[in-house]
């Protein structure tokens, strides 16, 4: 996935973690948070954050990933809620792929790493997440999600001449202030341009990629 984001999609930066513990995960998201805050305060730029996770996962209200921690208190990172919170900042668009199981985790009553107090406030976000399985189920041991994802995105970009459009509906600011017609909303759709000359084979790592682009409003 790292090569796919850099070489095919031309993302500006990749932040990669493998078998992270809680400290490494918090450090990675600290770096991501800094990048999104820069776009949040810069009205001339928009940032696309794409997060791919493969590994063990559990479900407790939201999807949490399992970290390399022996201590249960630090074992689970609430990745879905973390992305939800980050996506509320202006000028940012977040796309996530969860290639992991979502077996239900018994409620522990403790606050997990990455947890926030606005767990139930899932509105007003620029967030689109793809899950590898329905709630309370698992993904196959030989998952083909990443292969299908790369093939689907590459095929789409080839058909559109390398143009990927983010739906205007993702930008809650347009909806919160006033209603637009379909034509008007298409006119404010963000466009990100990519070089689609090369595709990439499957990579088993967890990857977060960041892409900056000028707004076309």
Q: Can you tag this structure with a few keywords?
A:
5-stranded mixed β-sheet, globular, alpha/beta, 4-stranded mixed β-sheet, 217 residues, 6 helices, 28% strand
Any overview of this molecule?
- The protein is α/β, with parallel strands linked by helices.
- The protein has a domain at 2-142 and 203-212.
- The protein is built from 6 helices and 11 strands.
- The strands form 3 sheets. The chain has a 5-stranded mixed β-sheet with strand order 1-11-2-6-8, sandwiched between helices. Strands 5-4-3-7 form a 4-stranded mixed β-sheet.
- It is globular and about 45 Å long.
- The model is unreliable at 115-120 and 172-205 (pLDDT under 50).
In terms of topology, how is this protein built?
Elements: H1 2-8, E1 13-17, H2 22-40, E2 45-55, E3 57-60, E4 62-66, E5 76-77, H3 79-86, E6 92-100, E7 103-104, E8 127-131, H4 145-159, E9 163-166, H5 172-177, H6 182-187, E10 190-193, E11 206-214
Parallel strand pairs: 2-6, 3-7, 6-8
Antiparallel strand pairs: 1-11, 2-11, 3-4, 4-5, 9-10
Summarize the structure.
With 217 residues, this protein is an alpha/beta fold.
**How many whole angstroms does the radius of gyration measure?**
17 Å
Overall, the morphology is: globular
Q: How are the strands ordered across the major sheet?
A: 1-11-2-6-8
User: Which regions are unreliable across 5 or more consecutive residues at pLDDT < 50?
Assistant: 115-120, 172-205
- Beta-strand portion reads 25-35%
Number of strands: 11
Q: How would a textbook summarize the main sheet?
A: 5 strands, mixed
Q: What share of the residues lie within helices?
A: 25-40%
Q: Helix/strand/pairing class, anyone?
A: alpha/beta
**Could you state the order of secondary-structure elements as H and E?**
HEHEEEEHEEEHEHHEE
The number of distinct helices, counting runs of at least 4 residues, comes to: 6
Q: What is the first-to-last residue Cα distance?
A: 30 Å
Mean pLDDT: 76
């Amino acid at each position: 996935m790292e090569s796919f984001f850099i070489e095919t999609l031309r993302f500006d930066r990749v932040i990669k973690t493998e078998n992270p513990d809680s400290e490494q995960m918090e450090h990675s998201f600290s770096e991501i948070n800094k990048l999104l805050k820069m776009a949040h305060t810069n009205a001339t730029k928009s940032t696309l954050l794409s997060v791919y996770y493969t590994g063990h996962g559990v479900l407790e209200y939201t999807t949490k990933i399992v970290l390399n921690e022996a201590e249960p208190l630090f074992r689970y990172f609430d990745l879905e809620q973390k992305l939800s919170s980050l996506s509320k900042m202006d000028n940012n668009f977040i796309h996530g792929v969860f290639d992991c199981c979502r077996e239900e985790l018994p409620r522990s009553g403790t606050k997990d790493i990455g947890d926030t107090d606005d767990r139930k406030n899932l509105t007003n976000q620029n967030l689109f997440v793809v899950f590898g399985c329905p709630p309370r189920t698992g993904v196959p041991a030989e998952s083909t999600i990443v292969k299908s994802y790369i093939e689907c995105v590459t095929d789409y970009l080839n058909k559109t001449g390398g143009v990927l459009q983010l739906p205007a509906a993702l930008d809650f600011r347009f909806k919160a202030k006033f209603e637009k017609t379909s034509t008007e909303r298409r006119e404010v759709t963000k466009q990100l341009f990519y070089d689609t000359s090369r595709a990439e084979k499957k990579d088993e790592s967890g990857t977060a990629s960041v892409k900056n682009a000028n707004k076309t409003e």
